[in-house]
Amino acid sequence: MSDVYVEDGSYARLKQVILSYTLPRELLNKIKINNITLSLSGYNLYTLTKYSGYDPEVSIYGGSVFGKGADYGAYPTARSLLFSINATF
Q: For the chain, what is the radius of gyration of the CA atoms?
């Protein structure tokens, strides 16, 4: 390895956000439902970094201690959104 390939890998990441809302009882009584909760979850939403690679947290060597920090263009962590409805009748 050479220090030519070394760069600052510091980062800040918005890893997980969960927003949820329970509908008011007055509205639910009209449609004869006990409870409805709406949720929106987001994972790996934003990464703030000056790192030139895809993801400063990824390593092509997985959990190996011998190749930490070497990504060689490895795929970044997936971003995902999940919407859910929890209803009680």
A: 21
Measured in whole angstroms, how far is the alpha carbon of residue 35 from the centre of its chain?
A: 28
pTM for this prediction: 0.70
Q: Nearest-CA neighbor of 55 among 2, 3, 15? A: 15
Residue located via tokens 């790996």: 44
pLDDT value of residue 58: 74
Mean pLDDT by 10 residues, the chain (89 residues): 78 95 91 93 94 80 66 82 95
Do 46 and 39 touch, CB atoms closer than 8 A?
no
The token pair at 51 is 């790192």
Among 77, 61, 59, residue whose Cα is nearest residue 69: 59
Q: With CA atoms as reference, report the closest residue to 6 among 71, 85, 86.
A: 71
Contact 27, 64 (CB under 8 A): no
